Amino acid sequence: MSPKKEIVFITTNENKVKEIQDLANAEAKNITIEHLGYDYPELQLEEIESVAKESADYIREKRAIKKPFFIEDSGLLIHALNGFPGPFSAFVFDKIGNEGILKLMSDKKGEERKATFKTVVAFCESAKNAPILFVGTAEGKIAEKIRGKGGFGYDPIFEFEGTGKTFAELSTTEKNKISHRGRAFRKLLDFL
Ligand code: ITT
């Protein structure tokens, strides 16, 4: 049997680690994911792709890590709000939370509530290699109210298309099958 490949997931978000570990344990027996809670500065750029790339480049330049590593940047893009909060999702969540988003959406009906969740994984084989990006999206809509006790962040207000369930009403394994993060991370696994 070939030795397991070790890759390091750099994030300060323990919920992301839980999801990625769950997925890797189930679907990638030849890969070990280590977690490093290094808090790199996140630039406020207009595209999630650019944030992910710049973050990975920052970590490379700082030589903060010797092993193959990845980071990921995620965001919720609400169509009727021109993709807001998008790359500003963390800031907006801290300031107004899910209640604030529901208020912003209070006059929006049906199709106007459509939203996309997006994850961009940036992987570097070493500090010498430019990041390779893997994008995953999930389509859905903003629920009328907060529902579900699982997940984290915007999960209780993101209803996945066709299911009538918010991500917070799914188990970690169920969310991983269809989520933006699951899809982006699976692309990384295929690449590896
Ligand atoms: P790191 O940058 O350290 O990885 P973070 O929590 O700052 O952690 P992001 O910038 O990627 O991560 O997250 C943007 C915001 O979107 C933040 O408020 C998260 O809670 C939220 N978020 C990210 N992924 C999510 C998901 O799968 N479900 C619900 N909310 C999510």
For the record, the count of structural domains works out to: 1
Q: Tally the helices: what do you get?
A: 5
Average residue-wise pLDDT: 95
Low-confidence stretches: none
Ligand species: inosine 5'-triphosphate
Shape: globular
- Strand count: 7
Estimate the strand proportion.
Answer: 25-35%
What is the CATH third-level topology name? Maf protein
Query: How are helices and strands ordered from N to C?
Result: EHEHEEHEEEHH
* The CATH C-level class name: Alpha Beta
Described by strand count, sense and barrel closure, the largest sheet is:
7 strands, mixed
Return Rg in Å. Answer: 17 Å
Which secondary-structure class do the elements indicate? Answer: alpha/beta
Which bin fits the share of residues in helices? 25-40%
Distance between the termini: 16 Å
Molecular structure report:
The chain has 192 residues and is an alpha/beta fold. The chain has one domain (5-191): Maf protein (Alpha-Beta Complex), CATH 3.90.950. Helices cover 33% and strands 26% of the residues. The chain is built from 5 helices and 7 strands. The protein has helices spanning 14-27, 48-61, 89-104, 172-178, 180-191; strands at residues 5-10, 31-36, 69-78, 84-85, 114-124, 132-142, 158-160. Strands 1, 2, 3, 4, 5, 6 and 7 form a 7-stranded mixed beta sheet that branches. Helix 4 packs across helix 5 (180-191). The two termini are 16 Å apart. The model has no long low-confidence stretch (mean pLDDT 95). It binds inosine 5'-triphosphate. Residues 11-13, 16, 42, 73-75, 89-90, 93, 151-155, 167, 179, 181 line the site of inosine 5'-triphosphate.
